[in-house]
Write a structure and sequence with these properties.
Number of strands: 18
Number of domains: 1
Bound molecules: flavin-adenine dinucleotide
Distance between the termini: 25 Å
Number of helices: 15
Protein name: FAD-dependent monooxygenase
Keywords: Monooxygenase, Oxidoreductase
Organism: Nonomuraea antimicrobica
InterPro entries: FAD-bd, FAD/NAD-bd_sf, FAD_aromatic-hydroxylase
CATH architecture: 3-Layer(bba) Sandwich
Helix content: 25-40%
Domain FAD-binding: 4-312
Length: 400
């Protein structure tokens, strides 16, 4: 097996391209967008994924671009600050975990691979035949030994090879939307959060950002939105947040002019198998844990490393699934659990959360509280032992 096609040039796709190239495969990446996609919110790289980034030689570059967040402050509906906590605790980060903007990480991974990998932008797979012949919307048919679906939670490759998304999607009862807004609150590496019953608004500005990001989450029955209709998505967001207090009306006004809206249901993908015939899935396409898990990027990075390593050393897709499955299961379990603290279900629960946050600095046993917030994430983030997969270029260097 030599010639591999990857669909999707986000975190999973570019990271898989990197590792496949290092193992000596010939790699083509097809991405539907016209260029590498910027945007998205801050993502965490934790535990095993940090070791993967280190093995890619990217750790210093990632740290240099970390968000540098300092503090998260909670506000009530009238704009009164009610509690604050340090940003690492707010993000559930421990040890040397790093937070970085999704777009910055994607750009780093793309730069690392662009010279050795063929990138085809503005195209999409339309069919995959049993003999490996792949047809595209624009390119002529080409033959590949393997197709890697790294095209996200709404994967096109998964639909072609495994069937409709509804068979694998598990909706967690909530929506998320995020976009760039002017930093009218003057936030400096700080986050402002307004939790209300059934909906939460959040604004932050990171070290590199002169603007801010507004993030909204809300409980809802499935909205059946059109993934490509941004005007409809803005309308649905405005309706969901209608009547909310704090800075929400001004933020919604800013959202109207935003050009980078991310809008999706909080949904996980659960599959019994991630490979069939000549197709294998990596990242959100195969095992989306949802933004509520805080582990989507780490899963994509570790998945890319293990998939490429097993393909190179003979374990193949069977061994990829065997090594990765417990790690995916542990991290997907974080999603529903975390979500309860992100979108609060009742007035009593909201009162309880704010009271606990307010009292936290004065309560004895802060360590126990930290363990309760960050402990489960840290354990899940480390729930895989990374094998050493000697890369082709390293083997060649040893032989010389
Ligand atoms: C622009 C953007 C913004 C995001 N913002 C957030 C966020 O704010 N919060 C959050 O939790 N997660 C966000 N995500 C998702 C997050 O990046 C992933 O959960 C995680 O990093 C795992 O990445 P992935 O590579 O598996 O999937 P994704 O990051 O979703 O990447 C999938 C890639 O496949 C491409 N693609 C889709 N369909 C096709 C097709 N038919 N043919 C070719 N390519 C295709 C997409 O354009 C994208 O580049 C965002 C993703 C993107 C692309």
């Amino acid at each position: 097996m030599k010639n591999i096609l990857i669909s999707g040039a986000s975190i999973a796709g570019t990271a898989t391209a990197y590792w496949l190239r290092r193992h000596g495969f010939k790699v083509t990446v097809v991405e539907r967008a016209p260029a590498i996609r910027e945007g998205g919110y801050k993502v965490d790289i934790r535990g095993a994924a940090l070791r993967v980034v280190e093995r890619m030689g990217l750790l210093d570059a990632v740290r240099a671009r970390s968000t540098g967040m300092r503090v998260a402050t909670y506000y009530d509906g009238s704009g009164r600050p009610v509690a604050a906590m340090d940003a690492d605790l707010f993000g559930g980060r421990t040890d040397d975990d790093v937070e970085i903007m999704r777009g910055d990480l994607n750009a780093l991974l793309y730069d690392l691979t662009r010279d050795d990998v063929e990138y085809v932008f503005g195209d999409s797979i339309t069919g995959i035949a049993d003999d490996g012949t792949v047809t595209f919307e624009h390119l002529g048919p080409r033959r590949f030994d393997l197709v890697v679906g790294a095209d996200g939670a709404h994967s096109n490759t998964r639909r072609i090879a495994f069937g409709e998304e509804s068979r694998f999607a598990r909706y967690l009862g909530c929506y998320i939307s995020i976009c760039t807004v002017p930093n009218t609150l003057g936030l400096d590496r700080a986050e402002a959060v307004h939790p209300a019953v059934g909906r939460t608004a959040n604004v932050y500005s990171t070290r590199q950002d002169t603007a801010a990001k507004a993030l909204f989450m809300w409980s809802s029955p499935p909205l059946g939105h059109d993934h490509r209709d941004v005007a409809q998505q803005k309308e649905l967001l405005a309706r969901a947040m209608d009547g909310a207090g704090w800075q929400v009306p001004a933020l919604l006004e800013a959202v109207r002019g935003a050009g980078d809206l991310y809008f999706d249901s909080v949904t996980q993908i659960h599959m019994d198998r991630w490979s069939t015939g000549r197709v294998v899935l990596v990242g959100d396409a195969g095992y989306c844990a949802s933004p509520a898990s805080g582990q989507g990027t780490s899963l994509a990075l570790v998945g890319a490393y293990v998939l490429a390593g097993e393909l190179a050393t003979g374990g193949g897709t069977e061994e990829y699934e065997r090594v990765l499955r417990p790690f995916v299961t542990a991290n997907q379990a974080l999603g529903p659990a975390n979500l309860k603290g992100m979108v609060i279900g009742s007035r009593v629960a909201l009162w309880f959360q704010l009271t606990m946050l307010r009292l936290m600095p004065r309560l004895p046993g802060r360590e126990r509280m930290v363990e309760r917030i960050a402990g489960p994430i840290a354990r899940a983030a480390n729930a895989v032992s990374l094998r050493d997969y000697p890369a082709a270029e390293d083997v060649a260097a040893c032989r010389e």
